[in-house]
Design a protein that fits this description.
Blueprint: E1 8-13, E2 20-24, E3 27-30, H1 34-46, E4 51-56, E5 67-71, H2 73-80, H3 84-91, E6 94-99, H4 104-111, E7 115-118, H5 119-127, E8 135-140, H6 141-147, E9 162-166, H7 173-191
Parallel strand pairs: 1-4, 1-5, 5-6, 6-7
Antiparallel strand pairs: 2-3, 7-8, 8-9
Helix pairs in contact: 1-7, 6-7
């Protein structure tokens, strides 16, 4: 049996991802910029053999069946409009990025997402690249363990299936997410269903 391979990563842009977040010292800060998203996608591609595309939201999910999707909370709303079976399959391959910290553990568990990157971690990657470190995202415990990540039991940063983890072998957020995504795809394809993870 041939091992499953991560073939595609789609960074899905929803209209609200470019909304203004706040102003600081006369400078407008947005949730994303085209240059940052391109940099994120480039770094993901360097750390996988997958094709990484940045695209506006599209309902043409069939052509992206083997993708891992990366998007903000607006993507969850758009996926929720799909038929239940399609929505479940898409959510299980979705990495929620720039999620408000207070919702991260619950939203990961409730939607059975692939992983979640909280807004503090994403902001640090955007604003302090010189202080980057590997990890700082929420992933499925079974994937984190198979991937060699480290995590500690915590009533705040852990749910039944998810944990906040680090991985010392990866130096940046896109790098650790790429490594995690490769392991995730291997496990979900081996098990055939994410609920068993």
């Amino acid at each position: 049996m041939q091992a499953a391979v991560l073939k595609n990563i789609s960074v899905v842009l929803t209209p609200d991802w470019s909304d203004v977040v706040y102003e600081e010292n006369g400078r407008t800060i947005t949730r994303r910029s085209d240059e940052e998203i391109d940099r994120f996608a480039d770094e993901m591609q360097q750390n996988t053999r997958a094709i990484v595309t940045v695209a506006d939201y599209s309902t043409n999910w069939e052509r992206l069946q083997e993708s891992i999707f990366i998007g903000n909370e607006g993507l969850l709303d758009l996926i929720a409009q799909e038929p239940a079976a399609t929505a479940h399959a898409l959510l299980s391959r979705t990495v929620l990025i720039d999620a408000w910290n207070s919702i991260v553990p619950g939203v990961a568990e409730d939607f059975q997402l692939a992983a979640v990157v909280d807004s503090r971690r994403y902001f640090k990657w955007r604003t302090e690249p010189e202080n980057e470190y590997g990890g700082g995202l929420y992933g499925r415990k079974s994937v984190v363990d198979a991937f060699g990540g480290s995590w500690k039991p915590s009533p705040v940063f852990e749910t039944q299936h998810y944990c906040y983890f680090q991985h010392d072998a990866f130096l940046t957020l896109p790098a650790v997410l790429a490594g995690y995504a490769k392991q995730y795809v291997t496990l979900i394809n081996r098990l055939g269903e994410t609920s068993g993870m």
